[in-house]
Design goal:
Elements (H helix, E strand, L loop, with lengths): L12 H11 L4 H14 L3 H6 L2 H8 L6 H15 L9 H5 L7 H12 L8 H11 L8 H11 L5 H17 L21 H12 L4 E2 H6 L6 H13 L3 E5 L2 E4 L3
Antiparallel strand pairs: 1-3, 2-3
Helix pairs in contact: 1-2, 1-5, 1-7, 7-10, 8-9, 8-10, 11-13
């Protein structure tokens, strides 16, 4: 098993939240150094909430999907406004009110931070269940996988159990066994090169060095992608990542 993963060594719900947000659509090996650096810079939700978004994005730089950093920053602010947040009686529901926290992330927090007996489904766990229970079925739904997981969950051991299932699934995939395409909920990740996501990342990376004018930002990707850069700039402003500081100059929002 992958017992040395840094988030496996804590029950702290904030730190586990950071790891779960980082692990969305990103491989474990890539996340490890970013997680360590992020927790070192922002060891508590209070520390993260007080930092300007520009600092958060700089620490996040290189991990991709920068919306996750912004949502985590927003979640930290909500946690700071409610010091007893993690003690709320209906915590599962409350977690899903945080920016960036959906059903899976909330369930993972309940299992890994609180060892609650709850069904958790993610890509490696899907691989394990399909491999062992649906070896010949063409399309397997998460509902079918959930029914299996309800039956096999060892009570009182959710944290250890799901860690083991994830490691088993990772082992299967490293052995060349993957069933992603046979899961009804599976959707293939879109190509990064040439995408709007690439343009957004390039703009944020450049602005993390300081303000820049539109001409400079367009030159990052070439004149053949001017329209895409304009689209990215408009979206990043509307989402609260960047602002126009004067004339055609842009900068990361510093709050």
């Amino acid at each position: 098993g992958r017992h040395n993963l840094p988030w496996r060594k804590t029950h702290n719900p904030y730190k586990i939240l950071v790891s779960e947000i980082m692990l969305q659509q990103t491989q474990v090996e890539r996340v490890i150094p970013f997680y360590r650096a992020f927790i070192k810079e922002f060891p508590t939700p209070q520390k993260l909430a007080l930092a300007p978004l520009s600092s958060v994005l700089k620490t996040w730089q290189g991990l991709g999907y920068n919306r996750r950093a912004k949502m985590l920053h927003g979640a930290a602010k909500e946690l700071t406004h409610t010091p007893s947040f993690f003690s709320k009686p209906n915590l599962m529901h409350e977690l899903m009110t945080l920016p960036g926290v959906g059903s899976y992330t909330a369930r993972a927090l309940m299992a890994f931070a609180y060892n609650k007996d709850i069904v958790v489904i993610e890509t490696n766990i899907r691989t394990v269940v399909i491999h062992n229970f649906f070896p010949k079925k063409e399309k397997v739904s998460d509902k079918e996988i959930e029914e299996i997981l309800k039956k096999v969950l060892p009570k009182g051991k959710a944290r250890e159990w799901y860690g083991a299932l994830m490691d088993y699934g990772a082992f299967l995939k490293n052995s060349g066994i993957s069933y992603n395409a046979r899961n009804k909920q599976y959707s293939k990740q879109s190509r990064f090169i040439g995408s709007l996501r690439e343009a957004r990342g390039a703009i944020l990376r450049e602005l993390s060095k300081g303000s820049a004018n539109k001409q400079k930002l367009v030159s990052l990707l070439g004149d053949n992608r001017i329209g895409q850069v304009h689209t990215a700039l408009t979206a990043l402003m509307s989402e609260g990542f960047i602002e126009k500081c004067h004339q055609q100059h842009f900068a990361l929002i510093n709050k």
